[in-house]
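Researcher: Hi, I'm a grad student and pretty new to this. My advisor asked me to get structures for two proteins we've been looking at. I'm not sure of the right format, so I'll just paste the first sequence and hope you can take it from there.
Model: That works fine. Here's the first sequence with its structure tokens right after it:
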Amino acid sequence: MELIPTALSRHDDGKLRIEWSDGSVRIYTPAKLRAICPCATCREKRSATSGESPKPRLLPVLSIAETQPIQVTRMRPVGNYAYNIGFSDGHDSGIFTFDFLHEVGQSPEAA
């Protein structure tokens, strides 16, 4: 059975709610979606930081956007299989397939 979103909404707290064609409902926090972005750059960064590497000697400099709570700023359909999600930190290259989104979402009871 092909899973497709049937309804999409945003809660006042910024969480996304997607209703799926199988009748399930999933909740997504913008911070989690940003952290698991499937784009090549984000996957590479996660791989690089998952290994044992020396700690940087200097603290990183953060942009103003990086100091604010992350928000989803837009979601554009990609064909009939995914969404391209843009975030408030300017990142917008992740393509989130419907199967991936369904898998990583939380049920409303767990959220």
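Researcher: Oh nice, that was easy. Here's the second one.
Model: And its structure:
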Amino acid sequence: MKLALSGWGEVLPMYLPEWVVTLAEACDRSSMRTVAASLGVSPALVSLAIRNAHHARLDFIQARVEAVLGGVECPVLGHISAERCRQNQDQPFSSINPLSVRLFRACRGECPHGGKK
């Protein structure tokens, strides 16, 4: 949260969206440039979102943060990004290895994240 605190001051506002906190924490764990690359946006846009979220429309980066960094609990893989979850759900059946079979079955059965039946 060092990056968010540098932009917002000593105390983060109560109304700070959860996606901004997620983005700031990801940047603290690695780097702003790395996170920006994973989101497919510029480091300047990441900086704007973290330090100045109330002054600009940030719908695009919000959607990317929620999809890539938001994360879900997969019954097979544990904590994964929402984007990886969606990719797993879109995969056709493959018996190439036991993990592929388990993912296919979980995505169409016990998955609480919109799995296909």
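Researcher: Is there anything I should tell my advisor about the second?
Model: You could mention this: Helices lie at 2-8, 18-29, 32-39, 43-51, 59-68, 82-90, 98-107.
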